């Protein structure tokens, strides 16, 4: 297989999971702007996800969020997904929207609230059993707003205790992905604020516990690719929540704010063997003002483009330049790949997969956008909290 | 008058405006946790504000937010305020919660939306005429989320045009306070992102246009007291929106995150003559998880303590040390004031004003908290958007 | 002229000024790593700059730094520059390396130090008269390290006074470019910390005073293209100091850290008419660990590539998408230009200019690097402070 | 023992190590401003450190930096220290000022350079044997400036290998303290950029490897006290390098930029048992523009004040408020301690220790400052690199 053929083969097998909630309404604390045609049910979200996969060919699974996507019969839901061309993916827990969680969930000072939170997580594993999902993705809104509000260290003890109980419940082939976040919604301390905290907990829990990197969850200036390289080296990178940001956790389309950073991240994934391992590539975005399905298609394409560039890096030439200490030559090797316009290559890959080379144009022509606006009338649109 | 007497006199005449919306529910994009006893009407907000003033003695006015505080009869509202011991303060506009404002208000690409936004601002001036308010506080959520989304420069032109129309409408003794904000809810560009932009617009508009500094609206590391000193030097500091933050626009209680910064800001106010001028001192906070009225009382007290320390700086000794280039001595003069425990002094001031020296304890004993929980049942609680 | 021809014509006339000091040694506070072949005299710097221009064709001028480039006879220096194919450019002042400047220069508490600083600036204008330079570039290291150290507002008064005296001295066709910087070497206050401060001073001084944007001199997250658009709209953008940074004022090669940001900046320049006006495009970089001449060639090429992409934006399509509020379409128009590989176009432009299409390879083949290592032996290498 | 007596007892036994290099000249990349009377030899640094301890009573040890403090006979140096009332403390390595280290030291791509770096570290352990020092403090300037420059993961492998060799060499009772730093002097990647990386390496190395927290080495907004609490919980907090910063690694006097943060850090130390354990409290500062000895005295006092406030926190009341979820009450307990003026208490403590209650005034009266200016004439002043 030629090198280019290998690159193409890798691109054909890429899988980017889309999140059910990105198809629903979202917004800021100031306002949620509703959009027409937004899904009202988990099934309608799967229909939209099916569109994204139909046009991109690389978005075969859909992450669920419990309780937003809670249904009576997960087997039926999984079957419906398959009918729409996709499969159910990671289960995302929610321990931040119940009134009991005002001061935290798994780290709450009261044992009763912690019990409730852990029970919810255990329920999520039950759902994983039903859906056949591999990953339980855990993000905790836990933290404090004011110095002194709660005991920083005590909260870590409670966190460790709760996670351990859930870890024990995991079946063979199931994983727990622990997400960290710099801040928000907690404004003074966050109980899992950085990769180090997530790593330390996962290390103690065991091999089924892995860290998930949300690209929007870091302090200003943080070198994310360094974290990716480090977690891969430690065997502790479970997956990504992709999105992009200029300021805080803006949840914009991945690749929209700093495409060079996304390329560098994907290069470390490739270099560290993450592209062919169990690392999960997921989107976690909010399309507050732009059309949702095309935004998700665009996001998937942005990941593809960054991946293609990363795969095109001449790693032999890079190693030679690095070993010789030639700073400019080594940088030039990386930049050569980045500066390449990979869109023609991806058009070829899509045609070889039997897809339209231009997913966005093809989606626009498909009439789906008009169809859902016409048909999804009445009912309550899905959204955060819906 | 001795120096201490002068400090006390200054502290007695201090006025911190509380915002009607801080008495209502608030939260993050993830969740608004409702609290018991929260006001359901503008009048109930005024009642709570009356409590804050009753116990602190230095919170005589209440800022209104339109349309959240829209009423039929502002004269009656003003009269009700007076009955509760307070007066109506600044009028705050809202051009961010209508569906039309998804892509902006006064800077929106469509003329019709801009017209609607400007009309709202003109209506706010009408309300100012009715309430006798001096200040129109303008904060725009306008901006863009993605590079290319709109024309950065064109939006400035639209902003200038809209502001000019509103400026013309201002009566004698009325002012327009233009607030800047680093980001949120816009995530790529914000149309008034920094003091420089607000200043440039206000300068062109004229003397009735002034800049307002929200202490939570800056890039990480920004030296806010420098901005305060500069705006006072330029005669363009209209007022403050006080709150505190560790990360973004966290809207925590002022003085809770960095009390030394608050002291430095108040010192520049004192040094620049801002304490005895038309600078408006307002709170703009969200008490998402803590009890609202005590949080506001505490915030007012935090401003008082910072002010007291700023007034206690030995400015003569400071000038001598500064002029001689004695870095450590000059710093020590400032720190001596900051390290002073001014709570005994403030207790005295309160007693001299006929108040309980301990506002929080006195409020707790008053029974108000229990009374509103018992009486404010049913109806819709006030909150952002309510 | 076709559109592509117009783009090429614009690229052929682009002019990027290189700084004399970038050819000398530089480093961090921890260590300056000397490099072989580094110039020892202003003439040798001009020789190196001549190489950069010879291979890129778009670096026709060289900025001088006084006193680092102080010579007896500036006419002779200008003549020597011309012999090496370049011209003398902006004069950069230095008021930060004399022992007297420990607590500032033009803002120093002592009048004698301020006098010395202003005299130096006036001397720089004398040199401009001799060199025929248009621009005096002013960057002040002035500020304080500790709260209380000096009077923030008083320093602004001194700054205004000093600048006014220098402004008066400017001849016809001469300009004063005032640079702002977020922090460093001052760690608490900086006397010109942001574009707003520079703008306010320049506005009062008059039309010959313009703001210069150093791309490394902002708070984390600052939207630089917004500032560029705003200053162009105000008629106050004097020029750029290009470099790139991940953290603070890292002074890396422009385009190395965030090439998408550089593109967005260049787009605002093009959109705002800055490309065909008096805006000066200068590099201000430190090649601490990489070979200096190739790093500067690469930097010039990076500016060219960003400019080419900016020129390729389909502005009509962009305007249509923006006016219609189609967020994704508008973003896509911008991204289409950015994702284009413009290196073939630039190779063509170079060939049409009679240059080698690959400046770095051509420079490497030229033998200049080996020549200077062999010949520049002995003497004192140029560097900051040398 | 009453509670106050316990607080006083704790304050009397506090030990803050001062760094030999803080007595020498320092500066920024722009300029080092030399000061009169600065030490020229390790012995003169010890003399100055002796003054700091003589007046504060809580600075009994001095950190050495190799090779800046390299001497023939460490036993003699230790004896000289004792004569001046102090003892030798941690040994700090230097792998950043040799020309070989341009691209790194222990992580350098070339084995020969790594060998040299590791040999230096082993030499430092030899010196520890001679001085009786417990701690080897490791800070590496290693990293890269440009994407692609070197292999991020490969550098971690080299780091691990080098550290392991040094770890093996440690004797009983000796420790390796690994310091992390966000950036500088490397501007793209840093090989130990955060606590997570330092922690992961220390964990693998074993119990003698511990993390050191430099308070100036974090991304903007990082919650340092969270890291302190976490490392104490993990048994991996080896010590502190205290200083303060507004922007980057400003190395200002500890407590000068954010005294409330320092208090919160010290509270977590107290709460986590760190105050009575093996946690090393060291200063790492640069007194670029202020007089050095008084700056260090002031810094030690600032640590004392923060410690006193932390010890005064009513932990029982805090626990009650935290357990009940009373956000405002819990915050108030912490703030009560912070708002206390502890200077009178510290004056008492000093008097009980037989010291002058006002260390700075006593030092000023002592004549030492004048003495060293008069006597330390000629020779080469100590400084970074000297």
UniProtKB/TrEMBL annotation, chains A, B, C, D:
<keyword id="KW-0464">Manganese</keyword>
<dbReference type="InterPro" id="IPR050337">
    <property type="entry name" value="L-rhamnose_isomerase"/>
</dbReference>
<feature type="domain" description="Xylose isomerase-like TIM barrel">
    <location>
        <begin position="55"/>
        <end position="245"/>
    </location>
</feature>
<dbReference type="Pfam" id="PF01261">
    <property type="entry name" value="AP_endonuc_2"/>
</dbReference>
<dbReference type="GO" id="GO:0019301">
    <property type="term" value="P:rhamnose catabolic process"/>
</dbReference>
<dbReference type="InterPro" id="IPR013457">
    <property type="entry name" value="Rhamnose_iso-rel"/>
</dbReference>
<dbReference type="GO" id="GO:0008740">
    <property type="term" value="F:L-rhamnose isomerase activity"/>
</dbReference>
<dbReference type="GO" id="GO:0046872">
    <property type="term" value="F:metal ion binding"/>
</dbReference>
<dbReference type="InterPro" id="IPR036237">
    <property type="entry name" value="Xyl_isomerase-like_sf"/>
</dbReference>
<dbReference type="GO" id="GO:0019324">
    <property type="term" value="P:L-lyxose metabolic process"/>
</dbReference>
<dbReference type="InterPro" id="IPR013022">
    <property type="entry name" value="Xyl_isomerase-like_TIM-brl"/>
</dbReference>
<keyword id="KW-0413">Isomerase</keyword>
<protein>
    <submittedName>
        <fullName>Putative sugar isomerase</fullName>
        <ecNumber>5.3.1.-</ecNumber>
    </submittedName>
</protein>
<keyword id="KW-0479">Metal-binding</keyword>
